[in-house]
Amino acid sequence: MINNKIHEPLFHLTKRTTGGSKRAWALRAIAFAVSVLVCGIVTIIIVAVNNEQLSQAGRYFEEYSFEQYFLDFGEGVFGSPRTIWNLFQETAILLIIALAVTPCFKMKFWNIGGEGQVLMGGLGAAIVIRFMMGKGYSDGLIIFLSLLLAIGLGVAWAVVPALFKAKWNTNETLLTLMMNYIAVCLVSFFVAKNPTAGSNTIFFDKGGTIPPIGPQEFVGKEFVLFIIAAAVITTIMAIYLKYSKHGYEVAVVGESPNTAKYVGINTKAVIIRTLVLCGVLCGITGFLLVSAKDFSLREDTVGGRGFTGVLISWLGQFNPIFMVVTSFLVVFIQRGSAKVATYQAFGTSYPSVMAGIFFFFIIAVEFFVNYKFVFREDIQAKIDAFNEKVKLTLSKNKKVEEAPPVVHIQAGEEQKEEPAQDVVEEPASVEESVKEEK
Amino acid sequence: MLVTLLSRAIRIAAAFLYGSTGETIIEKSGHLNLGIPGIMCFGAVGGCIGADMAQKGGAGAFGIIVATIFFAMLFAGAMGLLYGFFTISLRCNQNVTGLTITTFGAGVLGFWRKNLLNIVVSDEGTITFKAASDFIKAPMFGAVGDDWFSKIFLSHGTLVYLAIIIAIVVAIVLKKTRTGLSLNAIGENPAAADAAGIKVIKYKYISCVLGAAIAGIGGAFCLLDLQSGSTEYPIEAIGWLAVALVIFSLWRPGIGILGSFVFGLLYVMPNYINGIGTEYKKILEIIPYAVTALVLIVISFFNKRETQPPTALGVPYFREDR
């Protein structure tokens, strides 16, 4: 029986140890579907409210239906071959950034400076292109050097917080955040110092940048490089994290710093090494953004992708293969919403709102994947069942135990012999078995 | 010119101060809320809606200011509650939730502004809350004198002084009262605080909501006072600087008052320096961030207990994990 004086909460939570990945993936799929649906409902409501006000003002308005919403959404994602290639390119960019920060997170090094590291990579590429173009250097050399400087600056931006974290345990979350803004300021300085056509963007001519890959009529020629790069980096990162000694060390440092210390892993070296790797990948991304996608540099060349990469990495559970899926879904939502926004004149912020709704759902579902509720009634039922069982066993035992005294008092010699016989039999049987063994 | 510079710096400082006071309360409970920029955006939306409603309802200056504050706190507090629900009850990662809220909040502010433009016909091609803003910007102490003292210190709207009052009150509560000490204990070691009978979950929720609500007033202040009711410019950068200011002020709202003034000065100074090109002004914009990074490094270098972040900052607390 429960002691009534102890307050038992209505429910408590326990970590799910069973249930398997099938249930988890089903839950995540449901969350994704629901988030898309909620995005649609929110949009329909907004349009309806707008229309209400417009009709009161006597102005023109158009009805918007659910089907139309999904048609527009689908057009944004799969509208034309070019749209689809674009979708894959964006997925690839986000994926590389997410892959870059993943080893850091596995190590519980909260690097939210992907934004700044990628931007510095872009700045590195831009500096080389700006100062070497049109001065008689070969295109190959310019591309090579811009990649090199991009990686160099990316690594510099990643390794500074790592050094301070390793040496003095400086809070890396806040330091990387600050360095993002320093990177933005440096880029806007560089752009302001070298203006092209009075805008706050530097544009580059073809030549020092990467030419399209493949024949003229191939639709994906501008995009395919990103997809190849992402595929290669994903494969390498998956192997690196799962099968290499480095990957194992990263996991140990993240799971338990003390274990790492006792087995003789040099934690400081691991932190610095991992952040150098992160910087290299971010630098490559910055280089690709500047010299293979935008052919320009602005303050918001990265455009929040560094932060989105953090979310993708976490939602993909730091698993490179899962991250392919999550980054695709994020781009799916962004692209689809962007098209809806174009048709409804919602502006450029609308996709961020929808992406926010999507993230909220996907984050929240992890709770239901990892934990389960145990309700008071369930506990009571379990306790009752247990008590029942105990009673049953006790009563059985009682019959056996209480038999002899009962016999003593009530019955005669006959019944008393039975237990006695049992006792005698046992040693006999033991003796027999011993004999048999011999 | 020095007078205008100082006056302008104090005004901008108030925006930083709201954000950093709110974030300090949240961080003291062991939650690193990177959603402050998004929460300030929400506060801005709420503040504008409130001010607009009050003004159209024929309220006076006092009514408009109260409505602005109330709606800013309501909207931002709702986001704080969402953040709290995700990180405290659903046990999600704090950084991930915070970044999502920032994405979402900035998106909502931008979308709200664009959508208003779709409905309301505006001659200037932009929506402003100028009429309401005039009430909020009006000097609190009536007409401003011509001397430097009243120009610097007495020429501001009510919300500037409110920011300082809130910061002082929060500083006293955190330092001197039982509630503040309990909150400190939760940030340092939630398990020990729980064992001592402090209601950890309740404290965490209250500090998440209250901190967000205070930061939200800052967002409303940005739009209605600093930008004179214009919805043109994003306010995220101010939000991130507010997060930086928490570190700069070593988790003390009292120091935050001075720190916010320093940040405000650094923020507006490039506009008041003549004789250099715009590109070098961009370099000067680095200073607040660089100084904050430096402070962060220096405090970790000295490693004194009093200047450290709350020990359990960013570490989730679940009673069942014990």
Describe the structure.
- The complex is a heterodimer of chains A (438) and B (322).
- By secondary structure, chain A is mostly helical.
- Chain A folds into 2 domains: 265 residues, ABC transporter involved in vitamin B12 uptake, BtuC, CATH 1.10.3470; 63 residues, no CATH class.
- Chain A has a two-stranded antiparallel ribbon.
- Chain A is globular, with a radius of gyration of 33 Å.
- The relative contact order of chain A is 0.15.
- Chain B is globular and about 60 Å long.
- Chain B has one domain: ABC transporter involved in vitamin B12 uptake, BtuC (Orthogonal Bundle).
- By secondary structure, chain B is mainly α.
- In chain B, helix 11 crosses helix 12.
- Chain B is 74% helix and 0% strand.
- Chains A and B meet through strand 1, helix 1, helix 6, helix 11 and helix 13 of A and helix 4, helix 11, helix 13 and helix 14 of B.
What's the CATH class of the largest domain in chain A, please? Mainly Alpha
Task: Profile the largest sheet of chain A.
Answer: 2 strands, antiparallel
Stated plainly, the CATH topology of chain B is called ABC transporter involved in vitamin B12 uptake, BtuC
Question: What is the number of independent domains of chain B?
Answer: 1
CATH A-level architecture of chain B: Orthogonal Bundle
Write out key terms for the chains shown.
heterodimer, A: 438 residues, ABC transporter involved in vitamin B12 uptake, BtuC, 2 domains, two-stranded antiparallel sheet, two-stranded antiparallel ribbon, B: mainly alpha
SSE blueprint:
The complex is a heterodimer of chains A (438) and B (322).
Chain A: E1 11-15, H1 20-56, H2 66-78, H3 81-106, H4 114-132, H5 139-168, H6 172-193, E2 202-203, H7 224-243, H8 245-255, H9 257-262, H10 267-294, E3 296-297, H11 305-315, H12 320-344, H13 350-370, E4 371-375, H14 376-410, H15 413-437
Antiparallel strand pairs in A: 1-4, 2-3
Helix pairs in contact in A: 1-13, 2-12, 3-7, 3-8, 3-10, 3-11, 3-12, 4-5, 4-6, 4-10, 4-11, 5-6, 5-10, 7-8, 8-10, 11-12, 12-13
Chain B: H1 2-28, H2 36-56, H3 61-89, H4 94-119, H5 130-137, H6 148-153, H7 158-176, H8 178-188, H9 190-195, H10 200-226, H11 236-248, H12 253-272, H13 278-284, H14 286-302
